[in-house]
Amino acid sequence: MAIRRGKPRDPHKERFWRETIEEQQRSGLSIAAYCQHHDLKAWTFRWWQHELRRRDRQGVQRSMTKRSGPSTDLVLSSAFLPVQVVPDDSGSSQDPTPIEIVLADRSTVRVGRGFDPTTLDAVLTVLEARRC
After folding, report:
1. 4, 6, 18: which is closest to 51 by C-alpha?
2. Could you report the per-residue pLDDT of 2-50, keeping only the tens digit for each?
């Protein structure tokens, strides 16, 4: 495990940049246009974007290696994602994919009968980390 050196992390700064990056993604503006509009330096924005991805990957890897209990022991650093429940129009109770999860980036995860909850949790964790 790597040893951290230098200044301690500032949770307020990290929260600011997480919110700013999410706001830029929702805005539809390019990074350059968003930064110019909000008087931010584009290189600082990109550095934080890269740094937060690295931290999220590191957190997922650490969670996966330390995990010994059920899947509910995993603590994610990000917020809940919106979920939309859609009625099943197929009319078939024999549907081979009873669960379909649509992520914030419109990716879809289909889960068949008899899935392993631990594996599903790990897959969703990796996908969520990739989103940040």
Report:
1. 18
2. 566 777 888 899 999 999 999 999 998 999 999 999 999 999 999 999 9
Q: Is 31 helix (H, G, I), strand (E, B) or coil?
A: helix
Neighbours of 79 (CB within 10 A): 10
19: left (phi over 0), alpha (psi -120 to 50) or beta: alpha
Confirm whether pTM is higher than 0.70: no
Q: How confident is the model at residue 105 (pLDDT cuts 50, 70, 90)?
A: confident
The mean predicted confidence, pLDDT, of the chain is: 77
DSSP states along 54-102: HHHHHHHHHHHHH--S-GGG---SSPPPP-------S--TT-S--EEEE
Q: Is 41 helix (H, G, I), strand (E, B) or coil?
A: coil
Q: Which residues in 92-104 are b (16+ Cβ under 10 Å) and which e?
A: eeeeeeeeeeebe
Q: Residue 26: what are its φ and ψ, rounded to 5°? A: -70, -30
